[in-house]
Hints:
The chain is 17% helix and 45% strand. It is α+β, with helices and mostly antiparallel strands.
Amino acid sequence: MTSIPPGRPAWVDLFTSDPAAAAGFYAPLFGWAVAEATGEPPTGRLVFHQQGRPVAGAGPTDDGQPAWTPYLATESVDTACELATATGGRLRSGPVEVSGSRRSAVLTDPAGASFGVWESLGLPGAEVFDVPGALTWAELTTREPDRAKEFYGAVFGWTADDQPMDAITYTTWQRDGQQVAGMMPMVGEEWGDLPSHWMVYFAVTDTDAVADEAQRLGGSVSVPPTDLPRGRFAVLTDPQGAFFSILGPAPAPA
């Protein structure tokens, strides 16, 4: 990718208690190469590369809660922050600027789900998507779907395409006629006290094999491999407690 249109996921960061230990888990799991972040103050940040191109980052968490956080492309971080805070969101950190790279900030939406905004100053974001070991989907999992439609529509110009899925309504966010992300309402007791959050999905070639490898590396399987119309997915948790999803092709019919 040499440019990423506004409103689309541009990057994803892991906020974690131990970036180096996390790298020891994700590098063999996804085949990532690991490098220290350059062009910014020394903060222990790392950059993960797939096929020689940056796909994700990692850095220390500021609140003790490990989490993967997607960044959404915007033409102006400052304008996006103003719109977000005026529409019920909260600025969590930033904006920060890395010369020749990007200007970014992290916010929370009205339901408390964290996300970032990314303005390219030379680095559009991740340089590869939708291949094994790279981001392939981002999904808002929220207790306030109606409020989310107002918020993300106002900040990013998203429209909501609602479709029935079993007992719930799944939303595909669209901008300029293109799918950009999804939304899953948190309905039912199975969600417990889990807060609203963004879920990131990494592409894999074999969901079952990657889930097994994650356990061998010290992670755990939160949702076992399951078939969906989009493919076969699983929810995994890394050794530091950050959860993420993997999505591979559906198994061939027997």
